[in-house]
Every structure is written in structure tokens, then in C-alpha cells.
Amino acid sequence: MSTRVSLTQYLVEQQRQHGNIPAQLRLLIEVVARACKRISISVNKGALGDVLGSAETENVQGEVQKKLDIIANEVLIEANEWGGHLAAMASEEMEDVYVVPNRFPQGEYLLLFDPLDGSSNIDVNVSIGTIFSVLKRDDSGRPVSGADFLQPGRQQAAAGYCVYGPQTTLVLTVGDGVAMFTLDREQGSWVLTQDSVQIPEDTQEFAINMSNMRHWRRRCAATSTSAWPAPTVCAARTSTCAGLPAWWPTCTASSRAAACSSTPGTGASPARPASCG
């Protein structure tokens, strides 16, 4: 981009143009972004920072926590608890809601986060990230509880995520489109690198969470309109949805294509190629 726009400048301009970023919300977003920079530094150190490996504990989901899970969680809490913009926080790494201590002023927002999503990938040097959401606190004056966090997604004041990969990127929305910022490691600042981010209507690639493969047959059985897809569809299909034979996942892409092309109809199951396991 010819003109470098910082995160702070972007938020100020959004506030001037649309008036949808109150001062406390702007402060909150900037503090979360600074915390993400600290997490990025720890992730980049890897084994040199003694942050890899398991913490030998479990989170509320029953998942084994990594050392960096706990470090990232502490970074986000310490960065946000004292600023006066938050009333409470909720994290995947904490069993209960974290209410801002009485020694600090309480603000009008609630912060939810997964401090380090994909932490099982830490030790194999794959991209991981921080996910966060901001909600307005109930103004009834009663103490904050877990029920205050159970709000519809449309009531979010802001949301975003930070990816720690070859570049560290921050993707953010404050209710008027999505913007992407890249961390300038030399300057230590977030720079706007893409505005009005949208999901493309067409793509040649897609990603699937393979850990949920065991659920595909049941889900597809409920939504499938035919027992077997047309040859052009099944050539690329890799799941175990309704109508696909048990040997399907063991075949190579070329073997699947051959099996499909040998079955001209859409209702018959193809013959098992000899090359499949």
C-alpha cells in the first residue's frame, strides 16, 4: 500500500466516519493487539524460549494444555485487567469467568478469547492463532456472571483473530466490514494491508477438520439428496458420506476418478478398483 495506515489510525478514522467505536472499545482493541504482539514473540522463540511442550494440565474442554496456552492466557489477562475498559473475561483455558479485580475500575465490555487456538500444532511449527470477541456488559448494575457472556453473535461490538505464521496478521471487524493488519516486526506496529476483506465466491481449494470425519456419515445421510454423486462431483470427494463405499477413503484421487467414470449413473455404487486398499 502506498500509504501506511496503522491500527490506531484505522480505528480513529472508523470512529470519525461511522461513530461506532467508543473510546473504551478502541482502547480494548489496541490492548488486545498489543497482547497479541507479545504472544507472537513467545511463539517465534519456540524452543529457544522454553515454551514448547505440554503443561501436563487440561482445560475446560478436556484438552491437554500446552505451555504456550497458559502463557498466552496470562498475557491477555494481565494486559486487559487494569485498563478500565473491561468488566470481565472468559477464556477456553479458564473454568470460570474472570471478573476484573476490585483494585481496578470496571468498564462496560466483556472479552472472550481462545488465547492460542491450534496449540496442538505448536511443536511442529504450524500456524496457530488467538481468537477474540467483544460484547457489551449488561447495564443492570448486578455482578457479572457467566450468563452475561451468552449473547447472540449479532450483538458483538467487535471480533477478530490473530494468526502467528510466516507473517503475524490481525483480522478485525468492528461491525463495518473486515480489515487485515500485518505486524511490522521491525517497527513493532500493526499496518493495514487489506481492507474490505471478503470470502471469495469461487475457490479451487477448501479445508476440512479431519478430526470430525467420524461424524460425516451421519451428517451427510441427513442432507444427501442422492445415494451417489455425479461423476464430476465424486472424482474429488474424499469423505465417508452416505452412499460412499467403505473402501473410498483408502483410494488415491486417480483411483476414485476411475471408479466414478466407470459408473455412468448417479444412483449406483462404483466397482472397487484393484488399486484401492
Give structural attributes.
10 strands, 277 residues, two-stranded antiparallel sheet, globular, eight-stranded mixed sheet, alpha+beta
What's the topology here?
Layout: H1 7-18, H2 23-45, E1 54-58, E2 64-66, H3 67-80, E3 86-91, E4 98-99, E5 109-117, E6 128-136, E7 156-164, E8 168-173, E9 178-184, E10 189-194, H4 213-223, H5 231-234, H6 253-261
Parallel strand pairs: 3-5
Antiparallel strand pairs: 1-2, 3-4, 5-6, 6-7, 7-8, 8-9, 9-10
How would you explain this protein's 3D organization?
The protein is of the alpha+beta class. The protein contains 6 helices and 10 strands. The protein has helices at residues 7-18, 23-45, 67-80, 213-223, 231-234, 253-261; strands spanning 54-58, 64-66, 86-91, 98-99, 109-117, 128-136, 156-164, 168-173, 178-184, 189-194. The strands form 2 sheets. An 8-stranded mixed sheet has the order 4-3-5-6-7-8-9-10. A two-stranded antiparallel ribbon has the order 1-2. α2 runs antiparallel to α3. The longest helix has 23 residues, at 23-45. The radius of gyration is 23 Å and the shape is globular. The termini are far apart.
Q: How many DSSP helices?
A: 6
Radius of gyration: 23 Å
Q: Separation of termini?
A: 51 Å
**Structural class computed from helices and strand pairing:** alpha+beta
Largest sheet: 8 strands, mixed
Helix content: 25-40%
Q: What does the overall shape look like?
A: globular
Number of strands: 10
Order of helices and strands: HHEEHEEEEEEEEHHH
Spatial strand sequence of the major β-sheet:
4-3-5-6-7-8-9-10
What is the typical, i.e. mean, pLDDT?
A: 78
